[in-house]
Amino acid sequence: MIKVKLKDIAINITDGKHGDCENEEHSGFYFVSCKDVHDGAIYYDNARQITEKDFIDTHKRTMLEPNDILITNSGTIGRMALVKDIPQTYKTTFQKSVAIIKPNQEIVRPRYLYYSLINYVSQFINESNGSAQKNLLLGTMREFKINIEDNFDKQDKIAYILYSYDDLIENNKNQIKLLEEATQRLYKEWFVDLHFPGYEDVEIVDGVPKGWTYKLVSEFGEVITGKTPTTSKPEYYGGNIPFITIPDMHGKVFPLVTEKTLTEAGADTQKNKYLPANSVIVSCIATVGLVNIAVEPCQTNQQINSVVLYDDNNLYFFYESMKRIKALLDGVGSNGATMTNVNKTKFCNIKVLYPTEDLVLKYNEFCQPIFDNILTLSKSILMSEQARDRLLPKLMSGEIEV
Questions:
Q1: pLDDT at position 332 over 90
Q2: Residue 77 pLDDT > 80, yes or no?
Q3: What is the pLDDT of residue 121?
Q4: Which of 283, 281, 241 is nearest to 261 (CA)?
């Protein structure tokens, strides 16, 4: 094993554009920020899309390729991804909050380096500058020293062991995606295209089936905007109540684990008892439209509005309705040109087309076993992640021989 500076095993270490780009929806050219990089991948669902001209200009700096390694270097430090060979890669560039490392493949295997750097996240955080918002400077990254195995055989063996966990995790995520798509297809067929069972015999009145109504979000349940407990009281933190923030919501149906947890006193600081299970959680500031279902009592911060449903039979119908919040907001409006803020009043006033109760029950009966399966797969993902994370430092230190 040898100690090397990061700059000595990389062809280049840079970051994204120090400036802005012009938005263009559906352009297919992505301007990714740190919020879009997590869980080992780039998540494109809420990534900004920009003009081709701005992409070409910014791409000259970032030059993203498969096997590049991404590190978030501003705000939340140290979320990483190993870039895949997929079509989006060739149309992706970055804001300055993401650093790009191009491994020198004559010295180090990209996947091995990716896992090696994960092992150093805490040190990256410690070496970041800034009080209000942490920043990991490129100069610091280039001079950063890490230990690596000095032969490809060991690098390949270590990377293979760790990748086997990530491969299982990715397969489970793909299964979850397919299951979610099944519920989304049926929702669209019944409640958007209006091809529900027996639709041929139902009269359409003012553009909607007879017996259907519009309900406000506030009519589905109690709407609660989260609040962050003061950090000046350490007794508020470190309990067993998950404290959910937007990073905990990405790419998930059920947020099973969070970075921070609250005590009962900390969770109750907003004079609302913490959210019960089966609450529907919706991100409404900065990133609008992430939706989760709570599987246990929890609390959220102020960027999230949650709905404690009056009737659990509405759970999966309401969840899928909120997945379409951006379209529903057309009739409500939102603050900011890129819809970065949906306040509680606007959220409460969103109108949802509500069918007859028998259709909602049929839809929820269809969804129940699917979401039970999603929860099982989500727990398997969590266990695999925990096993991988326990193994990683032992493999990298040589405590476990390969």
A1: no
A2: yes
A3: 87
A4: 241
pLDDT at residue 272, rounded to an integer: 62
Q: What is the pLDDT of residue 288?
A: 87
CA distance 30 to 70: 15
The whole-angstrom separation of Cα 400 and Cα 394 is: 6
Q: Note the pLDDT of residue 340.
A: 67
* 376-397 core/surface letters (b: 16 or more CB in 10 A; e: else): ebbeebeebbeebeebbeebbe
Contacts of 190 (CB under 8 A, 6+ apart): 196, 197, 355, 359, 363
Percent of the chain at pLDDT exceeding 90: 75
**Is the per-residue pLDDT at 47 higher than 80?**
yes
16 contact partners, CB below 8 Å, separation of at least 6? 32, 33, 58, 61, 62, 93, 94, 95, 96, 97, 98, 100
Q: What pLDDT does 83 receive? A: 96
d(Cα 338, Cα 47) in Å, to the nearest integer? 11
Q: How far apart are CA 4 and CA 148, in angstroms?
A: 7
Neighbours of 328 (CB within 10 A): 17
Q: Which two tokens stand for residue 201?
A: 């015999």
Structure tokens at 182: 């099944």
Phi and psi at 120, nearest 5°, equal -110, 15
Taking the C-alpha atoms of residue 220 and residue 62, their distance in angstroms, rounded to an integer, is 46
Q: What are phi and psi of 342, to 5 degrees?
A: -120, 100
Distance from chain centroid for Cα 213: 33
Give the tens place of pLDDT for each residue, 383-394. Answer: 999 999 999 999
Q: Regarding beta strands 221-225 and 237-244, do their DSSP bridges make them parallel or antiparallel, or are they unpaired?
A: unpaired
